[in-house]
Amino acid sequence: MKKTNFLFTTILTSIFITSCGGGGGGGGESAPPAPPTTPNPTTSISADPTSVYIGNSTTLTWSSTDSTSCTASGDWEGSKSSSGNEDVQITKEGLSTFTITCSNSSGSSSSSAEVTGENLYAYADWNSHSLVINNIQSRHQPYDTKINIEEAWYKTLSLPESDFTTTVDTYTFEELQSGGIGYGSHLALSDRTYVFHSNWEGFNEPENGRAAALIYDNERNLTEFVYKKIPGGTHQYPLLNLDGTYQVLFPGVDEGEIKDGKPGDATSWVFNPSDNTFTEVPINVGCHGSNKFDYEQDGDEDVICQSWGGEFDGKPIIFKNNGLLNFEAVEVESNGVPGHFSASAFYDNDFLNIIYTDAHGVGPIYNVVEFTNVIARYLPNDLTKIVDVAELPKAFFEKDVYKDIPTYSGWENSVGLSHDVRSHPIDYDNDGDMDIVIGSLIWASGHEYGFSVMQFLTNKDGIYVDETEQRLFNWSLFSPGTHSMHFYDFNGDGYTDIYAEDAGCNYYAAAGEPSIPDDYLCNGRLAVNDGTGHFIVVIETNQLNQLDYIRENFPRWAPFPGFSPLLGMTSDKELFWSKIMHDYDEPSVSGGDVVYNGKVDVVTVKLNKMLSTGPNGIDPALRGEPGFNEFYYLLNNESAMDSVKAGEYPNGLEHYIAVGKELGYLSNAGSSNAQAETIEVSIEANSNGSGNVYVIDGVQKKSLTLNIGTTYTFNHSSAHPLRFSSVDDGTHGGGNEYMNEVTKSSGVTTIKITEDTPTTLYYYCDVHSGMGAEITIE
After folding, report:
1. What is the pTM assigned to this prediction?
2. CA proximity to 625, closest of 38, 56, 26, 35
3. Which of 294, 757, 275, 235 is nearest to 486 (CA)?
4. Cβ(291)–Cβ(247) under 8 Å?
5. Edge-to-edge strands of the sheet including 704-706?
6. What band does 255 get if pLDDT is binned at 50, 70 and 90?
């Protein structure tokens, strides 16, 4: 109680003193109370997201209390409101710091937020690549080994080696052979992906081939290796059956027995993915070039192949798919059109068209040039005779420029120099008719010219035109072949891309000067489609053959050589590559034969991202531009390409964001701003003078306004062909015909208006003067 009383007394005393106002005498007025002190301001700031790609934006959100002014500092600046939010572009790699400082009469307060800027782009090493490419060219003088290879294309579209990772799995088999000659294919199911391979054993060992199925899970991890010893084979065809199931046909061929005077044929096999088993198909063929198509158009996919040796010597046969594990051989009569190495087929105008490559002896019957490729037309219900034969453009390596390369001994009067080993009909320019891609190589005497190419034959109203140099980019002729071509949409844009690979390597170039690195000696190239039938290589063996890494991390007595990888793609379009390699034991005596030790290494190379259409395969949505196509944009917008070449922008996407989008440049082949208009043009007597004039929309000599980004088709009288010029009345007025982005046919003239089109043009009649008027370009 004493403690409580003491406290109470003290409180009363304190109150009393305060109320009396102090001591000393007389009672004057009280002083006014002091004004309250202003509290210091408080601040807070946050960023969302806190990590972005350079060029993208983050949202800063800040607030303050008791502030009269706020100022930004660090990586932003200027006066700010007491609270708010603002989108800020990240312009540098690493940390950017955004500070807000708010003040009042009592002081100030600061808060900061940090954002990490990540570099979206990683570029392939052009300096190293160009050195090799130039050495390849000098090694093979006087031939030009480069097709549309230049720095801007390579740097903006090729993928860097850092985008790939490599693993190795090792298996043991009692039976083993060295690898031989063969190619690959793949089949993607919802829960697994198969990579298939088959081969025959060199030219030395008959009946010593292999059929293999590598089974990967959806993480692209190898889970099973199914191995089957077969006489021989090279191609595999995953076939879709009408009931939705799949089976994989392995047509037979065994060139290993040719040395013994045998025909080089072999029995065929089929793989069933439902139980991962191989079943023999009792059809013996020497199947070289081949392809799949739907022969009966019944929903069961079939295979046509050019057979040499055995029962079907010199003729194509069709493996007619009669259902799961059931095939029937349908023989096709070649009627004096013996294509030596490849056959493929397609339907067009009620005819079955078969492409024969390396055709020999056709001239006397069908008036066709020797060593060429042809299309033979059949009635679908009668494969015993050819209706007619159409000659295709000259085989790529039969051109005069290559005439001094010696033909392989024995082929002078049969195959010739251009060994056309693969053909594929495809509408690659999406215009509704069938174009053709032919895989060609030089099998030269001495093998000192390891050249190959994909030849693009464009269907122009039924006439095929060789447009290889216009449609193929980033391609070096230095590769051992294109025996196998795979046609899929690899980057998810809806257009068909191509992967070309072969079994061999140009090992002859490993010696001599200038030397060629061993990861350039083999073949495997992925070329993406811009959407209009132009293809650019973005992945090739020097990115995939990570030999230094493999040799260091997986040492073997015989180091891993360069290899041609087999492509796989999951159902989610995740890409990977496989290669089956064989281990060797050291010879028991110096200089003795190496011995296969029964171990097989499977090298798997994974692409670490989904291949897309932006620069270097990135997803352009990461920069806010989904659907943008780097290849299409640079190919179709010359000023953008010039800016990238000049170093003003690192790639086409950054140019589009900064400049092209506002100008209406087309960003992909299916751009919503890619417009098309048809203008009907009629003829009338001139109401204001003599002669006839053009009439558009009922107006004589109508002045027109045409828009950039639009393609205009003028339908006109074939007797009054409409043309364009930068001079009034064109050639009649002393000017020249304007031809850029203009196509002409009887009664139709089309012009594509681009940023490079002059701001003023004139349309006129090619035959008669005074018929047209002015065009303004906007």
Report:
1. 0.81
2. 56
3. 235
4. no
5. 704-706, 773-777, 760-765, 722-725
6. confident
